[in-house]
């Protein structure tokens, strides 16, 4: 693997040194496809091109490296992040933001190569997990016809009578199954929001006040791609708020 790399540092000499060191890296190799002298410039590159790795300084004028990394968090296509800085005090914050490594200046060639190896492992493991997730599906049987619906398309599941409603962006399906089974099997994919409902964590857009005619002080989630809200019980409200807080 050759890692398509963005170097972000407000010091031109620091960017030049990293470019020089990267030329000698072989296992894996890295190709510098862009550079940025400030966080806002880095964000534009990250939105406009496919990247494998960001070598990211922490202290920069305006948008700093921590803000850049925080904006990447949770993106399925986010590059691996390696912080490169003269200040070791930010190491804990860096790893809280899912950075794969933390290098202190002056960077040594051997240590940089180790960071590239960590980035390569991170990317390979994530791509394998994403491939597995795409293969997972739920089998819907309706009037003698069977259809596989990828779990990645399921926005919520609701328990209604003896059946589950499986909602995607375009259709609702009926499934003979158990919410508990989905919750136990896919805890990182689905979140319990009500005794009769699970929602896809990745689809959560907003939590808002909701009057369902019975409880004027109720709450509901808005999900991507569908208009109807999903009610949140008071018992699950704290867990939902925690998930939203982590996603910011």
From TrEMBL:
Alphabetic keyword roster: DNA-binding, Phosphoprotein
Alphabetical list of InterPro entries matching this protein = CheY-like_superfamily, LytTR_DNA-bd_dom, Sig_transdc_resp-reg_receiver, WalR-like
Its GO biological process annotations read:
regulation of DNA-templated transcription
What's a Gene Ontology MF term here? transcription cis-regulatory region binding
Annotated ranges, domain HTH LytTR-type: 138-246
Q: Which PROSITE patterns match?
A: HTH_LYTTR, RESPONSE_REGULATORY
> Which residue ranges does the record assign to the Response regulatory domain?
4-120
Query: Could you tell me which residues carry 4-aspartylphosphate?
Result: 57
Q: Name one GO cellular component term.
A: protein-DNA complex
Q: Keyword Lipid biosynthesis: yes or no?
A: no
Spell out the protein name for this chain.
DNA-binding response regulator
Lineage in the entry?
Bacteria, Pseudomonadati, Pseudomonadota, Betaproteobacteria, Burkholderiales
């Amino acid at each position: 693997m050759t890692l398509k790399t963005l170097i972000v540092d407000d010091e031109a000499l620091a960017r030049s040194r990293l470019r020089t060191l990267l030329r000698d890296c072989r296992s894996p190799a890295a190709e510098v496809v862009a550079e940025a002298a400030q966080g806002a410039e880095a964000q534009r590159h990250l939105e406009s091109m496919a990247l494998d790795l960001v070598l990211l300084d922490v202290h920069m004028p305006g948008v700093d490296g921590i803000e850049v990394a925080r904006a990447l968090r949770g993106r399925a296509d986010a590059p691996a992040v390696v912080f490169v800085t003269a200040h070791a005090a930010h190491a804990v914050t860096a790893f809280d933001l899912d950075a794969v490594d933390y290098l202190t200046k002056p960077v040594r060639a051997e240590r940089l190569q180790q960071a590239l190896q960590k980035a390569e492992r991170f990317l390979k493991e994530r791509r394998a997990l994403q491939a597995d997730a795409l293969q997972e599906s739920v089998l819907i049987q309706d009037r003698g016809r069977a259809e596989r619906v990828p779990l990645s398309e399921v926005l919520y599941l609701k328990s209604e009578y003896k059946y589950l409603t499986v909602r995607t962006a375009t259709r609702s399906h009926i499934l003979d199954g158990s919410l508990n089974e989905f919750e136990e099997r896919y805890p990182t994919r689905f979140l319990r929001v009500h005794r009769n409902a699970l929602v896809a964590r990745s689809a959560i857009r907003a939590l808002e006040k909701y009057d369902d005619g019975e409880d004027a002080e109720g709450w509901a989630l808005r999900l991507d791609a569908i208009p109807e809200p999903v009610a949140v019980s008071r018992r699950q409200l704290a867990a939902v708020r925690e998930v939203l807080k982590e996603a910011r």
